[in-house]
Amino acid sequence: MKPLLPVLLLATSLWLGNAPADPLPNQQSTTPTMNQTPKITPFLWFDHDAEEAIRFYLSIFDDAKILSETRWPEGGPMPQGSLMSARFQLAGQEFMALNGGPRYRFNEAVSLFVSCKTQQEIDTIWARLGKGGEPGRCGWLKDKFGLSWQVVPTALGDMLGDKDPARARRVAEAMMGMDKLDLARLQKAYDHR
């Protein structure tokens, strides 16, 4: 498997990283910015279920689509025709996914942070992402593929960063006692009610 890994990564990055080079000084790019590959894109390594994971994520977020995909050829390490790699977009953020085999696992050192404006949005996304996964503390959860997510109200950053340390502390203490975050309870702690 070791010799195959560099080949997989190189082939995938060459195939998916097809953005045109930056134009030389004093030259105009003829490619619209929205069609260029982002400079930094999260790359997700799955054992063999990248396609299932992508379809799962597409069902959760409104602004979601597959941008491109490639399939394993005959003689590859995965069944012919199965997904090798894909570029996809969730809520405006581009991702890359690879079916690379059981070499690497997701862990909590990296998570995807979802900002939610309302409690209804928190509840909906938490329930959908958490289906088949496991809840964690402070708005964290692992989905059924082992990927960690943080489902967080947009207002939380301002509350935790308040100039009044007592307010920020109350919010932090309330948050530490929660799995799924409850915006009303966080607001109550912030307002000291």
CATH C-level class of the largest domain: Alpha Beta
**Which structural class best describes the helix and strand composition?**
alpha/beta
State the helical fraction. 25-40%
Strand percentage lies at: 15-25%
User: Gap between N and C termini, in Å?
Assistant: 59 Å
Q: How many β-strand stretches?
A: 8
Can you lay out the helices and strands and say which pair or pack?
Elements: H1 4-16, E1 43-46, H2 50-60, E2 64-71, E3 83-90, E4 93-99, E5 111-116, H3 119-130, E6 134-135, E7 140-142, E8 148-153, H4 156-160, H5 165-176, H6 183-191
Helix pairs in contact: 5-6
Describe this structure in words.
The protein is of the alpha/beta class and 193 residues long. It folds into 2 domains: 96 residues, Signal recognition particle alu RNA binding heterodimer, srp9/1, CATH 3.30.720; 81 residues, Roll (2,3-Dihydroxybiphenyl 1,2-Dioxygenase, domain 1). The chain is built from 6 helices and 8 strands, in the order H-E-H-E-E-E-E-H-E-E-E-H-H-H. Strand 6 and strand 7 form a beta hairpin. The longest helix has 13 residues. The N and C termini lie far apart (59 Å).
How do you describe this structure in short?
By secondary structure, the protein is α/β, with parallel strands linked by helices.
